[in-house]
Every structure is written in C-alpha cells, then in structure tokens.
Amino acid sequence: xxxxxxxxxxxxxxxxxxxxxxxxxxxxxxxxxxxxxxxxxxxxxxxxxxxxxxxxxxxxxxxxxxxxxxxxxxxxxxxxxxxxxxxxxxxxxxxxxxxxxxxxxxxxxxxxxxxxxxxxxxxxxxxxxxxxxxxxxxxxxxxxxxxxxxxxxxxxxxxxxxxxxxxxxxxxxxxxxxxxxxxxxxxxxxxxxxxxxxxxxxx
Length: 203
Hints:
Blueprint: E1 4-8, H1 12-23, E2 28-32, H2 35-41, E3 48-53, H3 61-70, E4 77-81, H4 86-94, E5 99-102, H5 107-138, H6 143-152, H7 158-165, H8 169-183, H9 188-201
Parallel strand pairs: 1-2, 1-3, 3-4, 4-5
Helix pairs in contact: 5-9, 6-7, 6-8, 7-8
C-alpha cells in the first residue's frame, strides 16, 4: 500500500506501540509526539493518512484537525482517544474525520481502518489531479470562446448562438472547433463534463 501513515500521540509508549503494529504490516510510518511537529512535517501533496490522539498538551487533536482544514489540507484523520465522548466524536466527524476509535484499539481494527484511510487518500489525490488538469485545459479558452461555449452548452445551435452574440454562424463554428482543440475534447458534452470536474465534482 503506497502512502505514509502519520501517528501523533504525546504518550511515547503508545506511539511506539502503534508504530510497531503498522510497521509490521509494511506501512511507511512517521511517529510524532505533537500536533506542531505534524504540521511542520506533513507533506499534504502525498498520499497519506493520520492517526491522531485527541488529548494532547498545547495543541489537541481537534485543534490539529481544525488547522489542517484551515490550510485546505485533505488528509483522512483517524482519531484515537481514551477519553472520548459523544459530543467530541460528533465534532470530529462533522469536521471531516475519517474515523474515531477508542483506546486501546485492537491491532486488526487499526490496520483495517488505516488501509481504508489510505485508499480514501489515494482517491482524493486522483480527484485533485483530475480537477487541476480540467482547470488547466479550460484556462486555455479565450473569453469569447467561453461566451460561445456557455451558450452552446445551453443547447443552442451555432446559428442561435451567433444571433445572441451578434456573430456570424461561421465565426461560431470556428470558435467551436477551437474550444474542442484547446480543451482536448471530442464533443461539447465532454467539455461540459470537464467543467463539472473542474468544479471539484468529478468521480
């Protein structure tokens, strides 16, 4: 399984124990003793997940999650706590936590959730790459081509679009061909789907 598992816990014994369990499964593990260390170390551009203790001095797990969200960093977070309660769990899940597990967690449970979290991270990375690619391809269009495209995507013909924009049908046809060439699409339907992906709604 490609990807890094970050473990953050201020209890060094727990940290060593969790790292040993995951390293035995051949995960790449980075064990850290504070949220600050994570924020300084974590590479948000790689496939990864986070096993995060809730109760820590200086910066607790929920504050770490909040800071990651503020930075726009999408990492599946698995919370671990020995003092969990319903409100805390609800707050963590509403903020986008991947899971919330009670200490001590069984090794097989932790391993299974880490596998799932890394799969989620890989899906997120793939979706982000597709979004960036779609935006780059659409950015090649001129303002006039965007205007033509918007009208054509409404289902209007070249002739109708020409009338709306006070252009000749031939000019609209040229813009249409340029739109397909620049976006790398074979049809306007594909270009419309590209907009969908560019908005972050791809599969």
